[in-house]
Design brief:
Transpos_IS110; DNA binding; transposase activity; globular; 4 helices; Transposase_20; Transposase
Length: about 110
């Protein structure tokens, strides 16, 4: 968490995900939007650590494994890993805001 500094400065998980470099670059011209590869405006240390953690996390967390499989079914392993990394950022922010330890919730069958 030292790389992030004060996590309360992020008003949403989207801002934190962007800071960590886990979203695509976005260009806009003449009212047209174009999405490119991962943004280069990032904290490269955090990006590297989160992607490495996201490659291992599905082995230990059922919810992350489910997310990874869902994204992998769409056909791109790298996008599946990025989805898990984004979810890890959301988990980290939630743990920090609540001030409690992370507890894995059992997925509910509908």
């Amino acid at each position: 968490m030292l790389e992030i500094g004060d996590p309360s400065r992020f008003h949403s998980s989207r801002e934190a995900i962007s800071y960590c470099g886990l979203c695509s670059a976005q260009r806009e011209s003449a009212g047209k939007e174009q999405r490119g590869p991962l943004s280069k405006k990032r904290n490269k240390h955090l990006q590297t650590i989160l992607i490495e953690a996201a490659e291992l996390a599905p082995r230990w967390n059922a919810q992350l494994a489910e997310l990874h499989e869902k994204e992998l079914a769409k056909g791109n392993r790298n996008r599946a890993t990025l989805a898990v990394a984004r979810k890890l950022v959301e988990y980290l922010l939630a743990v920090d805001r609540r001030g409690t330890a992370f507890e894995e919730r059992q997925s509910q069958v509908a």
